[in-house]
From TrEMBL:
The keyword Signal applies. Transmembrane segments: none annotated. It is found in: Secreted. InterPro entries: Pepsin-like_plant (IPR034161), PEPTIDASE_A1 (IPR033121), Peptidase_aspartic_dom_sf (IPR021109), Plant_Aspart_Prot_A1 (IPR051708), TAXi_C (IPR032799), TAXi_N (IPR032861). This is Peptidase A1 domain-containing protein. It comes from Glycine max (Soybean). Keywords: Aspartyl protease, Glycoprotein, Hydrolase, Protease, Secreted, Signal. The keyword Cell membrane does not apply. CDD domains: pepsin_A_like_plant (cd05476). Belongs to the peptidase A1 family.
């Protein structure tokens, strides 16, 4: 039987092989790339959450409410192979494997752009299933030709299956120079299914596990760190977001707050500790019954749109927001499900929420709190889970320069208009 990636044990194995990759990078300076949002008129992707997260956090995370279906992901442009072949992949700090659809793609979602053909690249290398690289991903199995077949699944029920391989991946820097990364382990996906839209050509895994692009880059660009500045979803699609790697991604200056990253057995998610959330001046403790919270109760995920809170806290946040807003919530629109939504042409003017991370208070203005799933409606961009932990989603991350410093093990937040580069 082919391995299916549902059991809890699935993720445990990934942490066993923390070996270094043969990276050959010449550049020593940091660099930046642009993130493009997909054309939302084509979007029908449900928020993407890895199954692994589920096994780590809970097993019954509900599928997303349809209101998020028109919103979603930030696409990162990069090239793969020689000659370079351009792909657009979802920038996902919540997963590790970078993969793209490869020819032949037998059971794949429809894509408008041509797919990567490994036969046409002179730098493509299959990874043998005897190789240690194959076991970096615990779902690697041997094909009859000794290829390393992988399966990688996401909480949205999306799955990619294919062959683990190595390639040159080229990132274009915002300074104009391109940055080739040689021998990057990636998934050549020959069977990819799930709620992807036809602009998306795969996923760029930016998590903390051994196979992620971040781990493979290591300290090559002057420090193991990266930063992102995501524009809010209502911004014109031609305005790109920015992601920086290495030296140039340091987040410093006035207004910066930082919180420790919490190391757990699951190396993929960037765990932080959320003590509570304020709605204006009302402080709601994460753990209603006590000041004690478990360290690392949340993780930051650029691939999940809403912020997901344990029901106990979520219910309190909803109740408090309702009491602060003078308008009546929408109750007669079946499209909106149980979300807290208001009928208003422009976004609400308040309340201001504050996410109290350990050592870092992060203010959320209505832009980061309410999202518009359809004209004339704004909804609280939060949802709930029966788990003890939660996810800090990409709506809340917008208009903050967020730095992940993996050498110092801290995440920093600096308020910033991400539509204005520099
Ligand atoms: C989005 O795609 C549609 C259909 O291809 C196109 O008509 C529209 O101009 C695009 N919008 C933007 C902002 O690119
Ligand atoms: C593709 O994977 C699905 C499971 O995700 C499997 O049921 C199907 O048989 C596979 N198809 C091909 C052509 O390999
Ligand atoms: C990689 O493996 C596939 C399938 O076994 C094979 O067709 C292809 O020729 C191999 N490519 C290289 C460069 O070895
Ligand atoms: C390995 O992957 C290839 C290409 O996706 C597929 O044709 C083959 O059936 C797979 N073999 C095994 C044993 O999973
Ligand atoms: C909440 O606090 C109680 C009492 O200190 C503790 O036992 C429990 O683990 C905490 N729960 C969470 C989710 O942090
Ligand atoms: C989410 O919260 C609602 C009430 O606010 C509750 O009925 C539902 O069971 C919760 N869902 C989960 C997955 O905890």
């Amino acid at each position: 039987m082919t391995m299916v990636v549902y059991p809890t044990s699935f993720h445990l194995a990934t942490i066993i092989c923390l070996m270094l990759l043969p990276l050959h990078i010449s550049a020593t300076e940091g660099f930046s790339v642009n993130l493009i949002r997909k054309n939302s008129s084509h979007a029908h992707v449900l928020p993407l959450r890895r199954l692994m997260e589920l096994s780590a956090m809970e097993k019954t995370l509900t599928p997303q409410s349809p209101i998020y279906a028109y919103l979603g992901h930030y696409l990162m442009e990069l090239s793969i192979g020689t000659p370079p072949f351009k792909i657009y992949g979802i920038a996902d700090t919540g997963s590790d494997l970078t993969w793209t659809s490869c020819v032949p793609c037998n059971n794949c979602y429809k894509q408008r752009n041509p797919m990567f053909d490994p036969q046409k690249s002179t730098t493509y290398r299959n990874i043998s299933c005897d190789s240690k690289l194959c076991h970096k991903l615990d779902t690697g199995v041997c094909s009859p030709q000794k290829r390393c077949n992988y399966t990688y699944a996401y909480a949205s029920a999306a799955i990619t299956r294919g062959v683990l391989a190595q390639e040159t991946i080229t990132l274009s820097s915002t300074k104009g120079k391109s940055v080739p990364l040689k021998g990057i382990v990636f998934g050549c996906g020959h069977n990819n299914t799930g709620g992807f839209n036809d602009h998306e050509m795969g996923i760029i895994g930016l998590g903390g596990g051994p196979v992620s692009l971040i781990s493979q880059m290591g300290s090559s660009f002057g420090g193991k760190r990266f930063s992102q500045c995501l524009v809010p979803f209502h911004t014109d699609v031609s305005v790109s977001s920015k992601m920086s790697f290495g030296k140039g991604s340091k987040v410093s200056g006035k207004g910066v707050v930082s919180t420790p990253l919490v190391a757990k057995q699951d190396k993929t998610p960037y765990f932080v500790t959320l003590l509570g959330i304020s709605v204006e001046n009302t402080y709601l403790h994460f753990n209603g019954s006590s000041q004690n919270v478990e360290k690392g109760n949340m993780f930051l995920d650029s691939g999940t749109p809403p912020t997901i809170l344990p029901t106990q806290l979520y219910d309190q946040v909803v109740a408090q927001v309702r009491s602060e807003v003078a308008m009546k919530p929408v109750t007669d629109d079946p499209d909106l499900g149980p979300q807290l939504c208001y009928r208003t042409k422009n976004n609400l003017r308040g309340p201001v929420l504050t996410a109290h991370f350990e050592g870092a208070d992060v203010k959320l203005s209505p832009t980061q709190t309410f999202i518009s799933p359809k004209d004339g409606v704004f909804c609280l961009g939060f949802t709930n889970t029966s788990s003890d932990g939660g996810v800090y989603g990409n709506f809340a991350q917008s208009n903050y320069l967020i730095g992940f410093d993996l050498d110092r093990q801290v995440v920093s937040f600096k308020p910033k208009d991400c539509t204005k580069h520099k």
